[in-house]
Amino acid sequence: MKGLVIEGGERLVGEVTVSGAKNAALPALAAALLVDGTCRFTNVPHLRDVETFRALLESLGVRFRWKEKGELEVDASSIEGVTASYDLVKTMRASILVLGPLLARMEEAVVSLPGGCAIGARPVDLHLKGLEQLGVQIELEHGYIKARAPTLNGAQIYLDIPTVTGTENLMMAAATIQGTTVIENAACEPEVEELAEILKAMGAEIEGAGTTVLTIRGVEKLRPIEYRIMSDRIEAGTLMVAAGITGGNILMEGCRLEHMEAVVGKLREVGMEISPVREGKVRAVGDHRIRSADVKTLPYPGFPTDMQAQFMALITLANGLSVISETIFENRFMHVSELRRMGADIRVQGSTAIVNGVPALSGAPVMATDLRASASLVLAGLAATGMTVVSRAYHLERGYEDLEGKLAALGAKVKKVDLDEGLGEQEQGL
Ligand code: EPZ
Q1: pLDDT of residue 90
Q2: Which of 164, 191, 233 to mutate to test the pocket of ligand 1 (most atoms within 8 A of CB)?
Q3: Would you state the pLDDT for residue 427?
Q4: Is the CB of 90 under 6 A from ligand 1?
Q5: Read out DSSP for 74-95?
Q6: Cβ(399) to ligand 1 under 6 A?
Q7: SS3 of 110, please?
Q8: For the chain: N or C, fewer Cβ within 10 A?
Q9: CA distance 143 to 130
Q10: Atom of ligand 1 nearest to the CA of 299
Q11: Any ligand 1 atom below 6 A from CB of 120
């Protein structure tokens, strides 16, 4: 069982390059299913979730080749299957992204209903409702979505919630069907915009990329492309918090401030200096005591839910009281109980967390429960006095490419260890 051991108290100083974005890479790989040929993606992050998605696509007959670091060739010339099995889907919910492209390409798909996960029930009802409006026939049987699409036609779709992967699924399903599809109340996260750009590069006709209204005019066929995946704005935000929580000073390559206005606004509000050095290069400085600030997570361009746990770690050490409202997922405070073990003063009431800043956190054995919660615990460990051991650190590997290596290169005392669940705190050197 992999764990991370962190000796807190080191200021992070130095340069770091932000990796490609997980939540842009996954839909890009799904879009490759639409193409009878080989697409080449660069700046693809080496992540557990990317490997899981690769295994899923390979089970459908897609061929992959990792070329140099971050360069991935995806050949979907011959799709041999249309079933995304439960054992793969249950490990990664984003597997649902094969549904739209499989229906468009193969006219059928059998995809396991993704179960819930640590942060919420995360239904896919809006994906299915939109697909049915396009003419897809859907049956739910034995935990699977059995979908057939003999003839698909464009439709006017209104999404009750601006679902990110729902918007992506529908965009991919609509790209090559006859007629025009309009998706209203679409998600406009940068990763959704990037998928629209990828589909347009393949020959799709899409208007409104990056806005809440997408118009997709179906085309006959899409062609192979070469595309560089965007940098990960959530990793960038996580690294900025690492600078803030350690009073550090870091220079970040591959950071696009135009996608991070809500996060950067809040980090400046608590006292950090975030300044552009040049295009794609940003300095983050956290040289003094953090001030308190309230945050409410919202769909883009609001404060991203994927940065909520990391921001909470930072303001546990703020001067004063902060209120965090999580409006996207119903159970995304799993990191709170672990932060409290480290001395944080946090009270949760429903979807609101009240964080009363404390002068210091103390290192402790803590357990990661989900991807961003694990990042939050690592960040808290960087600032805590003494040693923190984060167990179940595999969660981190799902969405961060060598985060511990990046932090260590910036001066953090962090290392990966094998934790024996049977060992007591004493044996683990705590
Ligand atoms: C995407 O998940 C991201 N994952 C998540 O990142 C991110 O937290 C989330 O968007 C919100 O920004 C990927 O892009 C692979 P949603 P997604 O559908 O698409 C409800 C991370 O840490 N909903 O936008 O699954 C849903 O329950 C991950 O990198 C429905 O009710 O999120 C939630 O409350 C975590 N019915 C809200 O909408 C539906 O059919 C937003 O979910 C779909 C969603």
Answers
A1: 87
A2: 164
A3: 40
A4: no
A5: EE-S-----EE-HHHHTT-GGG
A6: yes
A7: strand
A8: N
A9: 20
A10: 12
A11: yes
Q: How far apart are CA 1 and CA 13, in angstroms?
A: 30
39 catalytically annotated: no
Mean pLDDT for 90-98 is 92
360 Cα to the center of ligand 1, angstroms: 33
Q: Tens digits of per-residue pLDDT, 404-417?
A: 999 999 999 999 99
Tens-digit pLDDT profile for residues 194-221? 999 999 999 999 999 999 999 999 999 9
**pTM reported for the whole predicted model:** 0.96
Determine whether the shortest distance from the Cβ of 305 to ligand 1 is under 6 A: yes
Protein residue with its CA nearest to atom 28 in ligand 1: 306
pLDDT at 117: 75
Q: Is the CB of 122 under 6 A from ligand 1?
A: yes
Ligand 1 nearest-atom number relative to CA 168: 19
Exposure letters 61-74 (e unless 16+ CB within 10 A, then b): ebebeeeeebebbb
Q: Which of 267, 269, 230, 265 is nearest to 250 (CA)?
A: 267
CA torsion sign, 337 to 310 to 234 to 123? positive
Pick the atom of ligand 1 nearest to 189's CA.
12
Alpha-carbon gap, residue 301 to 33, rounded angstroms: 29
- pLDDT-based confidence at 119, cuts 50/70/90? confident
Give the angle 414-237-68 at the CA atoms, nearest 5°: 70
Instruction: Provide the mean pLDDT of the chain.
Output: 95
